[in-house]
Write a structure and sequence with these properties.
single chain, 627 residues, Serine Threonine Protein Phosphatase 5, Tetratricopeptide repeat, five-stranded mixed sheet, 26 helices
Length: 627
């Protein structure tokens, strides 16, 4: 049983959450709704009836009506437990739509209310709903964590039906993780309690799960025993057509790939397909058609194999595991039928799926549990692909395959070459930019030193020689102004404090010269690379000058944050602001700043809007971590 079947195990067993608080036989939902609308009931009686209705139905229209009518009543009655229940069911509706941001928003609110109400059963129910959502997201470790929390509460309160649901769901999660040994342990515990309480629906579902786990362990004898038991028990459960279809398709897979009995496989597969077709369930119909295509391929009934696999492909092209098997069957069937064009078409789709499968495996391998999961999944796929011996025979017969492979190899090599060329061009551009910046910095340093040491010294000597000449007082004042201006220009071009003491000291000095500027520093006060210090100083200088000239700001905050692997500069003002999308930067210009910062492995972001001030954030990451 493949991953697609395991996905159904998770979904099916989690459905138990909606009904495990009820007895096996519940009143007809329509009669309960009618009772709610016609009878004179107190607020608490109505809330209890709403709870019974929601636990008895999977009809989203009825659930929405119950939530819309019941939630205001629970708030009016100040019943936090029931208020939590309605919000929890709102979250469950969003699970069905895969809108998980909304799911967890409502579950957080539901849990907060449940804890305040001190209602253990409601807290356990919310934990279970967390597990549902996490299971549907594929976050199985977190799902198990929340389901264990729910199990602990159920065991404390001796809630046997809750224990059954929790154990069954934990077993299914371990099954999805391919830890079939643990899956069987939890599922057997759940089955024993379900049999003790004679809960037919639960017994059928858990037997189905146990059959799946045993199949994955290649224990086909026990897999057959559990699946046939599930098939027997489900016949007496009213409204269980969906569950029946899952069991039938699982039996089809068992007799088609485990215990080889193709006559039984075809019989169960056709019966399962009839049910899912009536239920209008595209995913399960695709699963059923795929199972039938496998049987027809093994029986060498290639026309029927092609028809079944084509229908499976049309119904579900998203599931990667299923897609690999469908495209393989379509390739083999059409080779045997002489439809080379269609065979080549699906052979190409097969290799596209293999590429996507490999990329997905690499992505998922970044977490420890996912590494284990993906490794085992690859091993299962390798085992499945080994069964496709006819595909390998075809690879040796069809000359077009070799040509296609060579063409793909050629395209891949060209793609790698283009990427390398683009990388070299980017490196060349960065080197050129850094060279320009280094030259500019050197020239600024030289010019600042010449102005300060050369011309500045000469002006000072002239001032001393004019000291005793009274009628030259005006000339002395002009020389004072010239000397001060010269020092200011030299300082702004390349401040002496930056070269001698570093970025923090030079920015402090600079901010002291600006009346409405405030400087803040956080981090390790260590010297940076000379090029980085000069770049950040020039950025701060230009951004502050722009704020003074154009923003009419009352306050300008300059913040420098330095850590081991990066340094960031933030210049923020409370001025008039502007639209970064339509207004070009002032001074150096935003694009000029971005070019300079990018050359030092950095980024610059501008946040501003008219009337709300401006914030410019510059961050430079170090290629080598400072220790």
């Amino acid at each position: 049983m493949k991953k697609t079947i395991y996905s159904q195990v998770i979904i099916i067993t989690l459905v138990l959450f909606n009904s495990y608080m009820l007895c096996a036989q519940v009143q007809n939902v329509d009669s309960l709704v009618n009772m709610l609308e016609t009878k004179e009931l107190s607020g608490e009686e109505k809330l209890a009836l709403y709870k019974t209705i929601m636990e008895s139905t999977g009809n989203s229209r009825i659930l929405v009506k119950c939530i819309n009518d019941g939630l205001p009543l629970a708030q009016q009655e100040n019943n936090k437990s029931k208020e939590s229940m309605f919000i929890e069911y709102t979250a469950r509706l969003y699970v069905g739509r895969a809108m998980f941001d909304s799911v967890f928003f409502y579950l957080d609110k539901a849990l907060e209310l449940a804890v305040k109400s001190k209602d253990d059963s409601q807290i356990e129910s919310v934990y279970t709903s967390y597990a549902v959502a996490l299971g549907n997201q594929g976050k199985l470790d977190k799902m198990i964590e929340y389901q264990l929390k729910a199990l602990e509460i159920c065991e404390k309160n001796n809630n046997k039906q809750g224990i059954i649901a929790a154990l069954s769901n934990i077993g299914s999660a371990y099954g999805m993780l391919k830890d079939n040994e643990h899956a069987i342990v939890y599922s057997k515990r759940a089955l024993a309690m379900a049999e003790e309480l004679n809960l037919t629906n639960h017994i059928a579902t858990i037997n189905y799960s146990l059959g799946s786990h045993c199949f994955n362990l290649k224990d086909f004898e026990n897999a057959e025993k559990y699946l046939l038991k599930a098939h027997e028990m489900i016949q007496s459960v009213h409204g269980s057509e969906g569950m029946k279809s899952y069991i039938l398709i699982a039996l089809c897979t068992l007799y088609g790939e485990g215990i080889i009995d193709l006559e039984k496989a075809e019989k169960y597969g056709k019966r399962g397909l009839d049910i899912v077709t009536q239920l209008h369930n595209p995913q399960m119909a695709a699963n059923a058609y795929m199972g039938m295509s496998n049987i027809y391929r093994i029986q060498e009934r290639y026309v029927e194999c092609d028809i079944a696999a084509t229908k499976a492909w049309e119904l579900d092209t998203i599931n990667m595991d299923m897609g690999l098997e469908i495209t393989a069957n379509l390739t083999v069937a059409n080779i045997k039928l002489g439809n080379n064009k269609k065979a080549l078409q699906f052979f190409e789709k097969y290799y596209d799926l293999v590429d996507k499968y490999t990329e997905q495996s690499m992505h998922d391998s970044f977490t420890g549990q996912q590494v284990k999961y993906e490794t085992e999944k690859k091993e299962l796929r390798i085992a499945a692909l080994e069964k496709e011996h006819t595909l390998y025979i075809w690879l040796g017969i069809v000359d077009g395959t070799l040509l296609l492979s060579l063409l793909l190899l050629f395209m891949l090599r060209n793609k790698v070459k283009r990427q390398r060329i683009n990388q070299l061009e980017q490196e060349k551009q960065i080197i050129a930019t850094q060279s320009v910046l280094d030259g500019e910095t050197a020239e600024r340093t030289r010019l600042a030193r010449d102005l300060h040491d050369g011309l500045g010294g000469m002006l000072s000597v002239v001032k001393l020689n004019l000291a005793d000449v009274e009628h030259l007082q005006n000339a002395r004042e002009m020389l004072d102004q010239s000397i001060n201006e010269l020092r200011r220009v030299a300082h702004h071009m390349m401040p002496e404090s930056l070269l001698r003491y570093g970025l923090k000291v030079s920015l402090e000095d600079f901010c002291l010269s600006v009346p409405n500027a405030k400087f803040h520093y956080f981090g390790d006060d260590s010297r940076l690379e000379n090029r980085t210090e000069i770049l950040l100083y020039r950025c701060a200088h230009e951004l502050v000058n722009n704020a003074i000239k154009y923003s009419n700001a009352e306050t300008i905050n300059i913040q420098l944050v330095q850590s081991a692997d990066r340094v960031s500069l933030t210049v923020q003002d409370n001025g008039c602001g502007f639209d970064p999308e339509t207004v070009a930067g002032q001074g150096m210009g935003l694009e000029n700043l971005r070019t300079r910062v990018a050359a030092c492995n950095g980024v610059i972001n501008v946040y501003s809007s008219p009337g709300k001030g401006t914030e410019v954030y510059v961050e430079i990451r170090f290629l080598f971590v400072i220790k």
